[in-house]
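Lab channel / #folding
Pinned by the channel admin:
"Please post every new chain as: sequence first, then the structure tokens as a reply. Keep commentary short and put observations after the output so the thread stays searchable."

First post following the new format, from NK:
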Amino acid sequence: MNFLRLPWLVVSTLLSTSALAAAAVEHPFILWTRAEAAAIRQRVEKEPWAKKEYEVMLAAANPKGRKGGASGEVFVNLFQITVMGDEKVAEAEKAYLLSFIGSNPESSPGNPRATRHMDNYLNVLRYDALFDRLTAEERAKIEATFREHIDFYLHRDTPPSGAYTRTSWLPNMQWERPMSAHFEALAMGDEKLLRECIGAPGGWKWYFDEYIADGRFYSEEFGKQYSMNGEMLLFCRGLERAGLDALGYGFTGKGGATMRSYLESIYAVGWPRTELPGGLPHYGKVTMGDARGTHLNGAPPYAFQHAIVSGFLANGDGGNERFDAHNMNGRDHKGKLVDKMMTPLWFEMAQQKWPDAHFDYFLAQMRGPADAKYFPTLFFGLDPIDPNAVKPPPAPSYVARERGFAFLRAEESPAFWESSAPAVALQFATYYVHYAHDVFSLLGLHAFNRPIYLNRQISNGYGGGCPWTDSTRGVCGVMVDNLQFQLDHADPKQDHPHWPNPVGEVPTRSAFTPLVKYVAALAKPVGGKVTLDNRQPLAGSTLSLDLRREEPEVWPGVGMSRALFLTSEYLFDVLRLTSDQPHRYDWHVHALGLQKPDEAWKSTADLTLDRLYDMKNRALAAKLADPIEAERYQIKDARKLAASDGAWTATIEQTCALPDVAQSVLGQAWYDRRIGVRVRMLGEPGTTVYAGRSPESRQAPGKEKNKGEKSALPNEVGGTTLLVSRHAPGTVFAALHEPFEKGAPHIETFRRIEQNERGLAVAIAAPESGIDDRILYRFWPDFAEPLTLAGGGESFTFADRVFIRIRAGKVEAEGDLRVMKLKVPGQPKLILNGKETRATITSGVMEFAQ
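Reply from TO:
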């Protein structure tokens, strides 16, 4: 196969001349070269583990009696042909390939023109593997069909919105056809046509230049990224073998995105491992959007969302699938579901290409319960991976400004992955496809190798429009005036969930130091303008670019900011709202577990549907007209605390919600750890606090199944919603979240030093645990200007933020501290931003002035 040495007409400066050197490449070359195939066969014949893996592979690919999932049958068949020389299998696969000849790129069974998920990459792999078994006439006819499909992509096909932007299409179900064209040009060795595909709208270059955010992140909800990863890696693999590696693995988008960074982003959003007693650990990842249910086979609902590594339960359920196939993630010319490679295979290819990137650590965690090592597929040349010989990657905290979230990790070294230290993710205000109105919400809190807060999905079908799932009522955020649906009085069919409204990239402040990880964000668009991609569609067509208008406010007439301070012991959380008119503000968190009994909390009937949802809104009223639906959207067993202007506390512990823990899937050992969270909040006048059982998914005959929450098992992990309500022009929800284990929170004191319209200072203490902290936070907009706050014999002048930890021998302070008077024991030294700094101590008071 000769690649033509022609210039790329689209981007002539992309590559140096030396990188364009053409190469004569023999078929097959994408999955395996002939030399690789021979080496793999020798391994199967000589190495016991490889022989066993081969037998496992054959058994798994046999779809007889298989329930659900995908078998990877085509990949195994191509292995049989290329590696093992099985002519009987070759005959069947050739017949299927020849049926592709003359296929219509505009439609096929299950793929009307309006859809874009026709995926022919498997036909390209067949063509490559069977090349020598095809006659010249058969090759010509197949290549003519390839060219027809490529021409359709280049000259006759457009996305539904008419343009490719980050939020006008769905790569998981609409990039299949364009990428198939790339594969077809690659397989034919037509470099000119290949470069046209790569440079076309929606092509490879556009994806890396424009779609990938922050140089690495997928721009839909992360759980939807799986569909194309395998194809992207195989495309790079083929380019590399064709002498065009600079177009694939070696290509860098204008924002810094590479294939490696894109794959590494999968573990960049990873939580620390969740220990599964009697099984193997689960490594979850940040989950947002309208599909955030259980993704651990055999597990109860609500505790295990999308994951890097799906662990194994004590009964052996769980584990990562190697292949998957779904209705809208790829159908071929006959309308048949197309198998997609899943995480183990992506990571095997990545480990083979980048052995220093730590993908082997995660592969080692995917080993079977009875296996001492991870035994890879035979596809990509890996040896078995010993979990004792791998090292995890570092896990830095970061702010992803384009993608619109922050991830804070108390432990940032490689130890993070197995550490009990807390981690938290905060959503900003970026619009994304499958957006779930989660502006400024916590996307999760993990500690003690366990999820503490998760935003559950309870919708029937997809989450869009769900009164809970598609609303800040159902996430760890704040609801203003019960706003959710916007009504279109001219056309009720255009009613749609609208608030909170995304505004795109927002101003942020952040600092990640050894003692504390800090981030703050303001709910207004950077530069004052909302970009087109961040303008929320105003009707049912979520991909429309026409039905969008610029709206720079998240909540009408309300300003909002949120700041997080994460230490190894707690999360301090400040959510501030401002307005010149009174509003009702409902602050929420949703914790796994049950609230511990407390006589101060009284049963209440206040949390009616009218209280929780705007039942005067016709869209909500229609959705809740079904009495069964109305009943399940309530918060059950509601309790009320008349906190008034006083501070309050609630404790939630992960005890089993079933009558008999012996009937639980997770088992007694899971609940014996008595992990939970204690929530404290500083008081403000007019505060009312509620707690109750979080709503659950509905499993009912005749009703569409939930597309996020897959588990139909009983809810054994429970779920408690805390709702804090205030009615005022403005308010500050200043909360302390303290995860704990063994049923024993440690923090004894959480008090306000001083608070005014410009900032807040608090003290947090747990003498037995060595915690004696001060946190100083300057509100927007004048955060860079010095502010003095004082109380209890202490005073602080600072800008932005300061964190102070008092110990017996030293006081460590981090941030923009200008002047301080601080009560201290003994004669400690002052360490300011990592450097010993002069301070005086008189009568137990340390004084410092810059």
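NK: The first helix runs from residue 34 to 46.
TO: also worth noting, The chain is about 20% helix and 25% strand.
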